[in-house]
């Protein structure tokens, strides 16, 4: 009788444990699913959204996102990004001393060309000729590196001013400057940053601090 009772007890305990295990497994699965759902929502709500080119807010429809920076002294080259595509940078190895320029199709946002012109040891003539070939409706982005002004003359400055720049007339030796304008623009561009080279305020020994700029370029309409 004792063995029979003990066997019954073992069976009851085994059934209880098995039932508890099954219930706990189901519960844990549901709990894990709920925790995963909750954690996922928390992660999505706390992780800041990323916008094209890393700009601070999304651009409206029919606008191109852009972000750009001038060079840092004569060490780190400038960077130009449009619609999440890095067009020019030191990493891409397509930047150089002087004025760095990227041309973008104003309707599609497609890259058309990139060039840099040495305004310290080079000649201004190739810059002038290149500026004259830019077609209407082209977005033009420019950034200085090291020195972008020494070889500039009145003709070159005038051609850049016609793209919407206001600071180009005052751009001097080792100033830092970034600009986004367009061929055929009817008004002055709102996208321009300029810091003068001043030994009393320079961040680096012979150069001012880097200038950065971001924004949303209106898409050219027919």
What features would you describe in this structure?
The protein has 222 residues and is α+β, with helices and mostly antiparallel strands. The protein folds into 2 domains: 1-46; 52-218, no CATH class. Helix content is 28%, strand content 26%. It has 3 helices and 9 strands, in the order H-E-E-E-E-E-H-E-H-E-E-E. The chain has helices at 2-46, 125-133, 154-161, and strands at 63-69, 79-82, 85-88, 98-105, 111-117, 138-145, 176-182, 191-195, 212-218. A 5-stranded antiparallel β-sheet has the order 5-4-6-7-8, with no helix packed on it. Strand 2 (79-82) and strand 3 form a beta hairpin. Helix 2 (125-133) packs parallel to helix 3 (154-161). The model has no long low-confidence stretch (mean pLDDT 88).
Features:
222 residues, alpha+beta, 2 domains, five-stranded antiparallel beta sheet, four-stranded antiparallel beta sheet, 28% helix, 26% strand
Overall 3D geometry? elongated
Give the H and E element order.
Answer: HEEEEEHEHEEE
Main pleated sheet: 5 strands, antiparallel
Which blocks of ≥5 consecutive residues have pLDDT under 50? none
Total helical segments: 3
Strands in their spatial order, largest beta sheet: 5-4-6-7-8
Span from first to last CA?
99 Å
Number of strands: 9
Classification by helices and strands: alpha+beta
Alpha-carbon Rg, integer: 31 Å
Short précis:
This protein is α+β, with helices and mostly antiparallel strands.
Lay out the secondary structure.
Elements: H1 2-46, E1 63-69, E2 79-82, E3 85-88, E4 98-105, E5 111-117, H2 125-133, E6 138-145, H3 154-161, E7 176-182, E8 191-195, E9 212-218
Antiparallel strand pairs: 1-2, 1-9, 2-3, 4-5, 4-6, 6-7, 7-8
Helix pairs in contact: 2-3
